[in-house]
Amino acid sequence: MKWHALEGAWRITAMPDLVEEYLEEGEHEPKLVLARKGRDWNGEFEAGYMSLGLFGYLDPADPERLLFTFDGLDEHHQVAGLGFVAATGDDARGEVWFHGGDRYRFEARRE
Hints:
Blueprint: E1 8-14, E2 31-37, E3 40-47, E4 50-59, E5 62-74, E6 77-88, E7 91-98, E8 103-110
Antiparallel strand pairs: 1-2, 1-8, 2-3, 3-4, 4-5, 5-6, 6-7, 7-8
């Protein structure tokens, strides 16, 4: 299977919709890790107090963009939602949308 530009580990460098300090407030380094399993994708998203497990697939209309659903914790509350991420070289941008709640943009850099 051919390697895809989104595969691997990314450091989340910014979340413009939140205060800058939020990224470093949690227990873990801000990161996005993506792995392909056949046609499906799995991953982790950790930033601030968010710890999310991802499940997704490549967008049929744009195979450079990964669409995903997630569930996990945000400030110790169970959360779920959806999002997307797309990469250009060693930089990636995306959004996470909480079901019935907030929406946050993020930027990442390949590790």
